[in-house]
Specification:
Number of helices: 0
Number of strands: 6
Order of helices and strands: EEEEEE
Helix content: under 10%
Structural class: mainly beta
Shape: elongated
């Protein structure tokens, strides 16, 4: 990926949606929920007020409506500010 995020922005590769339930039932596309976890692909430099706490390769949890979806080289990413990330897994 040839994208360099600015300020406290973080591009995230969302984890794939679940295909089956724990009981083995197949989930149709219309019922799949958006994943709320993903892998940090790159990290911006931060700002003078915000120190970057996440690093490239971290698995993170984020809010349901966090970030902006972008497609780069045929891959869908979410780009969000660091404060939209709830936890590092």
């Amino acid at each position: 990926m040839n994208v360099k995020p600015l300020s406290d922005r973080v591009p995230i590769l969302p984890n794939p949606a679940e295909e089956k339930t724990a009981a083995g039932l197949i989930i149709p596309d219309t019922a799949k929920e958006k994943p709320l976890a993903g892998k940090v692909v790159a990290v911006g430099p931060g700002t003078k007020d915000i120190k970057m706490e996440v690093k490239e390769g971290d698995q993170v949890l984020y809010g349901k409506y966090a970030g902006t979806e972008v497609n780069i080289d045929g891959v869908d990413y979410l780009i969000m500010k660091q404060n939209d990330i709830m936890a590092i897994i």
